[in-house]
Amino acid sequence: MHEADEPNAIVDFLDIVDFLDTEAQMPWTPDDAERHTRKATTWALKELWAKVANESLERTGDEGRAIREANAVVARQSEAGY
Questions:
Q1: DSSP state, 42?
Q2: Burial class of residue 36 (count of CB atoms within 10 Å of its CB; 0-12, 13-18, 19+)
Q3: Which residues contact 22 (CB under 8 A, 6 or more apart)?
Q4: In the chain, what are the domain boundaries?
Q5: What are the tens digits of pLDDT across the range 24-78?
Q6: What span, in angstroms and rounded, lies between the C-alpha atoms of 14 and 7?
């Protein structure tokens, strides 16, 4: 490897690490909702929680934000009577 290629190799390596880290994150399942909110009282709300959490995680990469967004959506839906 030439010295001029070294920075590109480091960037490529970091891109691979980021990709693997993203791929390694397990998506949440409806069963995970119970650990994060008491408002997911039905299977439909648990499925909604998992869908919102996984989509948010994919979009933002932030697990805490994904959980908060899923909790907020489920809370609104449960208050609306779903």
A1: S
A2: middle
A3: 61
A4: 27-82
A5: 566 999 999 999 999 999 999 999 999 999 999 999 999 999 999 999 999 999 8
A6: 11
